[in-house]
Structures are given as C-alpha cells and as structure tokens.
From TrEMBL:
It comes from Durusdinium trenchii. It is found in: Membrane. Keywords: Acyltransferase, Membrane, Transferase, Transmembrane, Transmembrane helix. It holds the Pfam family DHHC. The chain crosses the membrane at residues 97-118, 130-151, 213-236, 248-268. The keyword RNA-binding does not apply. This is Palmitoyltransferase.
Length: 354
C-alpha cells in the first residue's frame, strides 16, 4: 500500500487514505517481543478520530505548553466527508450502530453457548453443567461489563468537579490530546475506537477506560477461541445425531467466533506491543518515537525530519525503527506492564504522564 504524507508537521499529518501506519518487526530497546502491525485490518478500528479530523493538542517534552494545530476548513470538511463514506453502505451510515452491534452480537453468542453448546457437551461427556455455566457466565459478564463501561465512560475532562485550572494556567500535560468529541483535552489520550464510539484514555477520577478496553478485547478473544473449539466439538457430536436446527445455529456461531477472532486478535496484538513499550496509540500514529537509518541525513534520524518523498519511501519499505531513547515513559517491559495495570489513575491531580 502506497503511503502519502500530507505535509510536514511536528506530529505527522496524513491524508485519509493512510490511517494507521504499520511498524516494522524491529525496534530499539531491550524489552518486549517484536511484532508486525496490521494496517489494513486495524485502520478502521482505531483512527476514526485521528488528528486529521480534530484539533491537535500536543505538548513538547521540554515544556508542558500546549500547542494546537487545526486543519483548514476546506480540508476538515473534505476529511469528514471521506471518513463518513467509509461506513456508508446502501445509502446508510452504519457507524452509529457499531456499538449496538458489538453488544448484541456478544449477547447472542452467549445465548447460543448456554442453550446449545454447553448442554450438548455435558450430555455427551457427562460433565456437570454448573461448572461450564459458571465459567462462561463469569467470562461473558466481565467482557460485557467492561464493554458497557468503555462505551459509556467519559474520558474527557468535561466534568465541573474537575479542577481544570492546571490546564489553563500551567499548560496541558505532555500526553494530553484534544478530541472533537469532548470540550476539554483528554489526559493520557490513547485512541478513538469506532466499535465503542468513544475515546480511550485517562479522565476524571473514577471514570477511565483504557484498562477496561484491554480487558474487553481480551475477553472477546477468549470468547472467540473457546467458541471455535466448542463449535468444532459440537459439530462433530451433532453430525452423529442429525439435528439440523442445532447444526445451523452452531455453524452461524462458528462464523461469528472466527470473525470476532479476526477483528479482536490484531487489536490485542497492537496494544500488547504498545503497553510493553508504554507507548500510546496516538504517539505511535504520529511517529513520535521512531527513527530511520540509511537516510540522506544519516542514521538514527527522526522520521518526521525527512522529506515527504524519503519519508514515504522508507515507510513503504517498513523500516521505521522504534527508539526507546525518544520515549521518556518507557522503563522496560516489566515496569511498563506493572504501571499500566497497577498504577492508580483516579487521583484528582493525576496528569496522565506515566
């Protein structure tokens, strides 16, 4: 896929055709396994509220003075129209229905498992139904709970109970970012997810959804994997019984499980890498921590300092390299993971700079 950079920008600016950049399977640092990002699968999943659609607020590492960059009105309107067309089929904009589709499909999958798969497996193996009902019940409840929380949580600093004087007088925290969905910038902004129609990040005390988002994705992957295994097992059992109605239901559930795994798997793969490096998706998209070698300016050159042509050429070759030294929040794999899962995020004075 040909990449196009729309023009020089401190954080990187791209035309709508390029949403999420694939990273190479190599980076500079001493932690975390290398992995290849999947641009074509994940572009719609994480970047509907990308910087080309919204007012940017970034803060340099030297100071916390906010710096906003806005698109020209004509460009903003063009980008909005292009993004809208991505979800229009048969003249209908389906994007607003994606959160409902995610929740309803998960509930429908749970009903199928409880009414068909579990009884058939228990009848064939002699297992106690209560054990399977309890296991899958907890899994679905946690997943659906995190899903509803992620959808409804407000990651913006829009509550009146929040003391926002720090934002105005001292400048925004380094990892804060402006989203067109909320009045105030969002601390520790990660990304916008179309499936929950919400921003993922750090917000007012008690309402944060980054960890819940990861738990939701992890739960969906577990549901998909177990669903595939159960469906294949039950399909074999049903072939012996000849129950057509149950076979159709199991076949549909198998298709759902495979599709769910194909969508949720790449998302988790990307975020596992981001968490292991303590890199936010917004920082990853804007190339803040990436360099390139063998350029016209030499080696270890920040990619945003390259010309558009050279940037695109190196990007197409997949030779962007993660530079740990450019990420002041990267403290190694173990500490990064510990901070993500255990560091308190609800204190009222939390800046999100961790």
């Amino acid at each position: 896929m040909q990449s196009v950079r729309a023009g020089p920008s401190p954080v990187g600016s791209y035309l709508p055709a390029v949403a999420l950049q694939p990273r190479p399977a190599v980076y500079m640092g001493d932690h975390g396994p290398p992995y290849q990002h999947m641009m074509q699968l994940m572009a719609p999943a994480m970047n509907d509220a990308s910087p080309v659609n919204q007012t940017l607020t970034t803060v340099t590492a030297v100071s916390t003075q906010a710096k906003e960059e806005e698109l020209e009105p004509d460009d903003e309107q063009s980008v909005a129209e292009d993004k809208k067309l991505e979800y229009v089929y048969c003249g209908i904009d389906w994007k607003p229905f994606l959160p409902t589709a995610l929740v309803s499909s998960t509930v429908a999958g749970a009903i199928c498992v409880f009414l068909i798969q579990i009884p058939i497996i228990c009848r064939a193996t002699g297992m106690r139904e209560v054990a399977l009902y309890t296991t899958f019940g907890v899994l679905f409840l946690i997943t659906l709970g995190c899903m509803m929380y992620t959808i409804n949580a407000d990651p913006g600093l829009s509550r009146r109970t929040r003391n926002v004087s720090h934002d105005i007088e001292e400048g925004l925290p380094q990892r804060a970012h402006k989203s067109r969905q909320y009045d105030h910038p969002i601390r520790r902004y990660d990304h916008y997810c179309k499936w929950v129609n919400n921003v993922i990040g750090l917000d007012v005390p008690g309402l944060l959804n980054h960890r819940e988002f990861i738990l939701m994705v992890g739960g969906l992957i577990a549901i998909a994997l177990l669903g595939v295994l159960m469906d294949l097992w039950v399909a074999i059992l049903l072939a012996e019984e000849g129950s057509l109605d149950a076979e159709v239901a199991v076949a549909l559930h198998l298709g759902y499980s495979v599709a769910l795994l194909a969508v949720a798997g790449p998302i988790m793969k990307i975020h596992f890498g981001l968490i292991s490096r303590n890199e936010l998706a917004q920082e990853w998209r804007s190339n803040q921590h990436y360099v390139a070698n063998n350029t016209s300016k030499g080696d270890n050159v920040y990619v945003e300092e390259l010309s558009d042509d050279e940037f695109n050429e190196i990007f197409d070759r997949g030779e962007f390299i993660y530079d740990k030294n450019r990420n002041p929040f990267d403290h190694g794999f173990a500490r990064n993971c510990l901070n993500f899962w255990c560091k308190p995020r609800w204190p009222a004075d939390s800046s999100g700079n961790f």
